Amino acid sequence: MSLREKKKAITKNKIFEVSGKLFKEKGFENTTINEITKEAGIAKGTFFNYFPTKEALLFYFAEQKADLVYKLIEKEIIGNLPTKIKIKKFLVTLAEIYEEDKDLTKLLFFEYGKYIANSRKFLVKERNPHSRVVKVIHVLLQEGKEKKEVRNSIDIQMAAETLDAMYFHTLMMWMKSESKQSFSKDISAKVDLLFEGIGD
Q1: Where exactly does CATH 1.10.357.10 map onto the chain?
Q2: Where in the chain is the domain with CATH 1.10.10.60?
Q3: pLDDT for the residue 119
């Protein structure tokens, strides 16, 4: 990365950090671009160089998480680990990322969902968070089947969608909860349960 690119990345992250702080203090709807630029110490034009609208910050948040998904694939779950451990590590690490700032995660996640629900310009499938997680799990399960770590009779797509549904349901329940429960520990236990199965 060149010096110019580093400076651009720093500015973009600063805008996002300041926006997140103001969103938590005032709410997304009540925070203006003028307030963001003033707090960040930048010109309004600079903001629009990075984010065409305030709502674009929501997409940036989602895309940051999506980028982390692929970094996890490249750095955290490659190698000869058993399939169950790869999937568990993948989902637990994602959960830990969200746990870093629950209030901001909650605010931006629900605003993002609300904006998408009301927008006619819906995200293409590849950018949808559910689709990305299912795709990763599907690849890992397919690899597991080839290594005889996943039963050959298992419908890979159905299994991937089940794990994804479990993950996002747990995420929603964690965001709505006022308790100090650990999202990552909950995910870890549920992955164990799904792989071990229910019944005798």
Answers
A1: 55-196
A2: 1-53
A3: 62
pLDDT tens figures, 76-119: 666 678 999 989 988 998 898 888 888 888 887 777 777 666 66
**What is the architecture, at CATH level 2, of domain 55-196?**
Orthogonal Bundle (1.10)
- CB burial string 102-133: b at 16+ within 10 A, e below: eebbbbbbebbeebbeeeeeeeeeeebbeebb
* Amino acid letter, 89: K
In total, the chain counts a number of residues equal to: 200
CATH number of this structure's domain 1-53: 1.10.10.60
Structure-block tokens of residue 75? 């750095």
Instruction: Read off the pLDDT of residues 55-73 as tens digits, 9 standing for 90 and up.
Output: 888 778 777 776 776 676 6
